[in-house]
Amino acid sequence: MKQKKMVDGVLIVVLCVLVVAFLTPIFFVLLNSFKGKLYISNNPFAFPTGETFAGLTNYMNGISKTNFFGAFGWSLFITVFSVAAIILFTSMTAYYITRVKSKVTSALYYMFAFSMIVPFQMVMFTMSKLANSTHLNNPPGMVLLYLGFGAGLAIFMFSGFIKSIPLEIEEAAMIDGCNPLQTFFGVVMPILKPTAITVAILQAMWVWNDYLLPYLVIGLSTPYKTIPVAVQYLIGSYGAKDMGAMMALLVLSIIPIVIFYLTCQKYIIEGVVAGAVKG
Question: For 177, left (φ over 0), alpha (ψ -120 to 50), or beta?
């Protein structure tokens, strides 16, 4: 009993250290978002004082210089539709791959699994050129690109969960007159809720915070800038940076995804464990 308490105490200390390590950068970003841009570089770890406190000036400057609300709208559009497309199409694909046993479906599964280990840097130049030539350099095109890049992990997790669903449930639905689509949407999809929410959290955080793909495909000179690309817009010529406005926009960009994560985080462990089931 004493040894268990000691292990629990060490674990709590380690977890507290990790919490502090993860939250410290966010705290300093928030801290510096209220300081004048001239004082951030000189003393980034100091609290704002009467001389260095800038109030909401950084927030107003950042919003006005980057058209933040426009970027927020495009980020929201791309994230919502990308995540919805990933959940819908990958869950159906995983269901087909898992229930229809053939060499083709087996090859498809391993191709999707292999896509998770391919670094984005290996395909980014050919992908951006293909996106430009096929006119996918716009928000709807970005949804298709994110669907392609996010399919591997989602199918892997959905397939693992579907393998744990008893076939008798689906057979009972078939006996009641359901066709495969009705069985999937009426019986299987509600059971997939924990994994679907987990996939939604992981993909939403990735798409919302992604900088490289929108920058390569959409760029800085279009009206479709996402929030990460809009923040980059604050870096002027010769490396001049408005650090105050950048910190303010980072705070504003963090808030929606943190709220989304905190709302759904109770499902993430359950979904990850369920998706790791080996059939």
Answer: left
